[in-house]
Specification:
- By secondary structure, the chain is α+β, with helices and mostly antiparallel strands.
- A hairpin with a 5-residue loop joins β4 and β5.
- It is built from five helices and six strands.
- Helices cover 43% and strands 14% of the residues.
- The structure holds zinc ion (2 copies).
- One zinc ion binds next to loops.
């Protein structure tokens, strides 16, 4: 495999976040869900964090704006976002679920020490996956690619 892994830039992430916040309300309406201020705060917290946060971390961010929100509501809302395709769950190394506001096709670098998760894109991977779909023997429903290693902060 060629190692031309590309980390996403801050500018790319910011443009993506704006696009997704705009699309979010429309998706909720299409799914018959009320666009409550709490739901909006949760998706914004998720999209503004590139760290694939746990529900508890999303809760800490949202609580600053909505002190009465409960952790249970955050858990439930994150699961709802996953169900309607506005987020996805990442569960590296069998720890508690981590949530990802980036629902475009991408892969993850996972540090086995600190469990940091970084988004990467493997060039050509999407094309290869569509070849698998064309082969007809197997209908591809989803793909999850994790590269396990040690991040620069954890390397001795
Ligand atoms: Zn690390
Ligand atoms: Zn990701």
């Amino acid at each position: 495999m060629e190692t031309r892994l590309q980390l996403r830039s801050d500018a790319q992430q910011e443009a993506y976040r704006q696009k997704r916040v705009e699309a979010f309300a429309e998706r909720c309406r299409a799914e018959g869900l009320a666009v409550t201020p709490q739901r909006r705060a949760i998706i914004e917290a998720l999209l503004s964090s590139a760290s694939h946060p746990r529900a508890e971390e999303v809760y800490e961010i949202v609580r600053e704006l909505h002190p009465n929100i409960s952790l249970a509501t955050v858990h439930r809302t994150l699961e709802t976002l996953c169900r309607i395709g506005e987020a996805q769950k990442v569960t590296p190394l069998h720890t508690s679920a981590r949530y990802d506001g980036n629902v475009e096709p991408h892969q993850h670098l996972v540090c086995v020490e600190c469990h940091r998760i970084l988004d990467v894109e493997v060039p050509g991977l999407q094309e290869q996956l569509s070849d698998i779909n064309k082969a007809k023997d197997f209908k591809l429903l989803g793909v999850s690619v994790e590269f396990h290693g040690i991040c620069k902060d954890c390397r001795p």
